[in-house]
Each structure stands twice: as structure tokens, then as C-alpha cells.
């Protein structure tokens, strides 16, 4: 992994991606993993990382980076009393359980299978963001148990497989049951904490001793990428919160949905390269 002009260029792009991820965290209460995972996939490919672990490393590293962003965002929203702490308390087992299941799936899945999973979920999220914004109402309050527990587990599972903080999914869930978008965004920051912490541990264990990992990796976590991106996301997250009050969320959600479509197409295309 010697530094070359190409790697330096992509490292610069990675920093830009970290800034975008931080902005998204502030805007939508998400960890930005949907941006980071495809970028990491390209970076690790350029660095010569074995394709067998390339996607796993991208997802695991993304989850590690989400930790400080989610913690900072959660603390800020909690100070303002915007977080639904009751929902988070009920999900303190459900969401991590889903993430643990995701790490078990990732440990046995091939790189191609993980890319297919990422692409499929990304397309579903894109359809929701572009075509189904605020068009359905499932109820006036969140469902009770065991539905609520099951939803938390599914959010943890899908987010753990994609390397994302679960914000888009939780926002959709809460707003579909009559909760204000601001409360949904604030609570999503807490969901990101419940996903990223067990995700870090799960992907370290899942990738322990795997051949083909680059230097400074512990399991499926690459600490060079983590050290490079975290400072950028920490600075950008508060800026994203400010932008949320100045820009149209409709335009941003549609733009992000289009980005997810492009990423999904890229991953599907990579299966035939």
C-alpha cells in the first residue's frame, strides 16, 4: 500500500466523501455509510486489497466511522430533548441483535453476495426517497410489541449488512406512524449508536485472521481509513445540522436517492467485471 499519486488523489476524494457523510449525518440523522462504503470499495481496490475481503472491509470500516458521528449527534439532540428515549430503551437489545446477525451473515458471505445485498437495499431505499416521500401513513402511533422489537432487529440487520447507521430506515418507520420528522432524525442518531458499536465488534470478530487484509486492519476494520475520515465527519456533522434549516429536504432526499441508484448500478456492474 505504498503512496502513489493515484492513491493520494483517491485519499483526497475519500476526505471529500467524509465531509459529505458528516453533512448527511446532520441533515438526515444518518451515519453516511451509504456514501462511504462505495468509496471505500474503490479505494481498497486501487490499493490492491484482495477482492475476497474488499467489500467486507468497506462495510466494517464504515460502521467504525459511524460511532463518533452518531455519538456526537445523539448527545446534541438529547440535550434538546428531541430523542424518543423510550423507543431506544426498547431497542437496546433488538437493534444490536440484528447487527450481530448481520456480522454472522457477512462472515459467511462472499464479496459478490455482499455487493448484491447492498445494491438491493440501496435500490429499495432510493425508491422510498424518490417516489414514496410522505405518501403513506401506517398509523397514528408506533406499534407495540413484538412488532416494535422485530422492526428494530430488521433495521439492525439491514444496516449491519450495508455499513450504515439506519437513519433512513428509522426515519421512514417513525414518520409512517405519525411521529414528527425532527424527532425521527434525533432518534436515528441514537439508533446509529446501537448499530455502530456492536457492528465494530462483530466485524472485528468476523474478519479475525482473514487472509488478504491490508496493513493496520483488525478483522474487517481498517484503522488508517478510520483515522483519516473521522476528523472530517466530526467537523462536517454540525454544518449539516445548520444546512437542514436552509435547504429543501425534498431536493436533498431526491438527490440522495439518485446517488443510491448510481451506487447500486455500480455494484451490480462490478459483478461482471
TrEMBL record:
Belongs to the 4-toluene sulfonate uptake permease (TSUP) (TC 2.A.102) family. The chain crosses the membrane at residues 12-41, 53-71, 91-109, 116-136, 148-169, 181-208, 220-240, 252-272. Coiled coil: none annotated. InterPro entries: TM_pro_TauE-like. Pfam families: TauE. Keywords: Cell membrane, Membrane, Transmembrane, Transmembrane helix. It comes from Rhizobium halophytocola. It is a multi-pass membrane protein. It is found in: Cell membrane; Membrane. Its main location: membrane. This is Probable membrane transporter protein. The keyword Cell membrane applies. It comes from the Bacteria.
